[in-house]
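Page 37, continued from 36.
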């Protein structure tokens, strides 16, 4: 929080009295929470611990605020990162997206809620988010949480567990997509990716979050392409493992994460955009990243051969790239 903002809040305490000032501080805290829940949670987690699907893709991973040193990661330091981003990571600058006041409020919330108090933030599966009677899906919970590995054969499941597995595969897997009880299992409660969702309305019944997730599912289905070369097959594997998280398996960027990043990831199937894209330009964008967007530099993660393989796959799967 900047000096001016701190002075303003101190003035409020003196002028309005402790009760009114406390209310103003609580309101500012909740505004910071709203910004965090909309802008930050899908990388840093609902409770600031970075146990998210994004963290399993990003190198280096997002900051775990619950492990941060409060004497070093101060609200002022957080504001500085929000303004400038962190080069070499997926943390972009939010200048032009958040104003200074919003950055200060967000930084104060992160500091107080996660770094100092290590509190559990907003739960996702609540009525306010469209999840009425979420307990009715409880047969699928063991698969979503990794308590029962998805790889367990059907013949070793009880009738109730088999029902839960079918429910998980038909409705839950698009968010909770790694149902395996392994050492690197993440906190599934923090992994849903759609807040707020398209088609969500608190006034339009029936209010069903599972139904509202369907517009995104089709963009997570990889294309089936015959006759890929060895380089293109390598690119396909790398694209699905690294790029599909934001661009979607179908390259459109219309999956959950792609829909809520600002600016949106490039639609690799859009002729208006891709007709001007050459293979060299694409390789450079992957290697160096694109400033002012969520596209990080991959040069420390992928080799030059890997990057060329991805460009070959994009050329084959989504849109022909112009000759250099």
């Amino acid at each position: 929080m900047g000096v001016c903002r701190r002075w303003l809040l101190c003035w409020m305490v003196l002028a309005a009295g402790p009760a009114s000032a406390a209310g103003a501080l609580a309101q500012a805290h909740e505004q910071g929470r709203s910004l965090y829940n909309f802008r930050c949670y899908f990388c840093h987690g609902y409770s600031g611990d970075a146990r998210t699907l994004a963290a399993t893709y990003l190198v280096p991973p997002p900051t775990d605020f619950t492990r941060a040193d409060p004497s070093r990661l101060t609200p002022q330091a957080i504001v500085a990162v929000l303004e400038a981003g962190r080069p070499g990571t997926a943390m972009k600058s939010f200048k032009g997206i958040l104003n200074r006041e919003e950055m200060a409020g967000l930084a104060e919330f992160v500091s107080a809620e996660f770094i100092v108090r290590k509190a559990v933030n907003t739960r996702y599966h609540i009525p306010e988010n469209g999840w009425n009677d979420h307990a009715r899906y409880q047969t699928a919970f063991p698969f979503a949480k990794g308590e029962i590995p998805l790889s367990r054969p059907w013949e070793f499941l009880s009738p109730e567990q088999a029902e839960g597995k079918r429910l998980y595969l038909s409705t839950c897997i698009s968010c909770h997509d790694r149902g395996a009880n392994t050492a690197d299992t993440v906190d599934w409660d923090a992994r849903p990716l759609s807040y707020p969702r398209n088609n969500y309305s608190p006034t339009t019944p029936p209010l069903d979050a599972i139904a509202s997730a369907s517009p995104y599912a089709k963009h997570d289905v990889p294309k089936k392409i015959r006759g890929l070369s060895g380089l293109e097959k390598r690119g396909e594997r790398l694209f699905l493992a690294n790029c599909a998280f934001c661009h979607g398996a179908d390259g459109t960027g219309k999956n959950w994460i792609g829909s809520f990043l600002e600016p949106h990831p490039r639609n690799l199937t859009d002729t208006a955009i891709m007709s001007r894209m050459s293979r060299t330009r694409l390789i450079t964008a992957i290697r160096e990243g694109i400033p002012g967007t969520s596209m990080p530099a991959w040069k420390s993660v992928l080799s030059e051969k890997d990057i060329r393989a991805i460009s070959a796959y994009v050329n084959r799967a989504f849109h022909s790239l112009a000759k250099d």
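The radius of gyration is 22 Å. Flag for discussion at group meeting. Residues 1-13, 178-212 have pLDDT under 50 and may be disordered.
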